[in-house]
Write a structure and sequence with these properties.
By secondary structure, this protein is α+β, with helices and mostly antiparallel strands. 42% of the residues lie in helices and 15% in strands. A 4-stranded antiparallel beta sheet has the order 1-4-5-6. The longest helix has 30 residues.
Amino acid sequence: MANQSDDETGRASDWSPGRTHWWTTTSIAVIGAIVGGTSLIMNFFYQPSPPPTTIESGHSEFMKLSYADRIDRCVPYISENLGAWRDRWRAALDDNGGSHQKAPVPDAPLGDVDAAGQAIVNTYLTVVNYAEKLAPTDEGENLLSCVYTPVLKMDPARSYPDVESLVGSGNETPKADNLVVAESPVYRQGEFAGVTAEGRPSKIVEVVIRPGGSEAHRQLGFAIVSGHDQGVRMWALNASVNGGDPQWMADIRNYRGF
């Protein structure tokens, strides 16, 4: 009986409160070290995905996208807001006496290959007017990077437009009406102002700006550009030539490419 009592006393002493506390704190420390180490490893190898690039992203970030990726973001946004933007542009022209088109003012869906020249020009100017005069800076610059194709060169420097200087310049005068006085048929093989169609539906229009004593004539080249997403496309500007320029094309009404 004495031996049994001694054994029980020994076992009881093995699980004294002090020893139990040591095991508990040690276990907690080990578990904490494992959890902390796992967290460090995960943080080292796991990098959260950057936020998606949208039409409202910073312009420098937006320009990292390919042109087709930009079109994928611009076309749905423009389609959703085009009617409201057009109403604001036309109202501003009515207010300052700059409207030279009779109602109903022509328009057409963004990717309508069969759209008339005046409808294409009106849609283009609707977007440009919003981008330059009304949009937040980054959004406006991003929109212009879609409606201006990468190959566009404009007078007088024959270089790509400086979109940063165009957006938010403080000039609130609405974009002037451009009246189409001549247009080519749609062509898919041909060249205008050094830009080749390369299978894309393309059209040249001649416009009169500010009809009257100070009017100016300009030829604009447009092409259908596409995104990666199915059916996402729009008319975009790829050439601009002022009257008197050596690249001015005579008799565009009969130009069908080559």
